[in-house]
Write a structure and sequence with these properties.
Blueprint lengths: L13 E7 L2 E7 L5 H8 L18 E4 L2 E4 L12 E3 L12 H9 L8 H14 L5 H4 L1
Parallel strand pairs: 1-5
Antiparallel strand pairs: 1-2, 3-4, 3-5
Length: 138
């Protein structure tokens, strides 16, 4: 007796284009492919890390159109025609961003695994409010 279940269809490929750290990228992705995997494994930007896979820890944080997102749960095709900023794109012309310098100077990084996400999130806060109160920071 033949198996009547249909075989799984071949993986669909979705061509997307988006800006990563100011550079236009065109890449083919699979529907289930996560943004974190594309930026780390395909674009070689390893500052964002995989950790909890649940939007809890922040190690995978990138900025999408200027807002922090967890790249471990965001499908890559959701970034099409949008701007992604990773920790590698924060430094400009070979100079660290003042937040990166402050984290180094003040020792604000413990092991460093989630530091990129903290820096990107702090950048969003300070870009919107350069002099936040303690309550706004907490």
């Amino acid at each position: 007796m033949r198996n009547t279940l249909s075989k799984r269809k071949a993986t669909q490929i979705i061509p997307i284009s988006f800006t990563v750290n100011g550079t236009w990228q065109e890449i083919d992705v699979e529907p289930q492919e996560l943004l974190l995997d594309v930026i780390r494994d395909r674009l070689g930007l390893t500052g964002s890390k995989r950790s909890c896979d649940m939007q809890v820890c922040g190690a995978c944080t990138v900025l999408l159109d200027g807002r922090p997102v967890s790249s471990c749960t965001l499908l890559a095709f959701e970034a099409r025609d949008r701007e992604v900023l990773t920790i590698e794109g924060v430094a400009q012309n070979g100079r660290l961003h003042p937040l990166q310098e402050a984290f180094i100077e003040k020792g604000g990084f413990q092991c460093g695994f989630c530091t990129p996400g903290m820096i990107l999130t702090a950048k969003v806060l300070l870009d919107g409010n350069p002099d936040p109160s303690e309550a706004e920071v907490i």
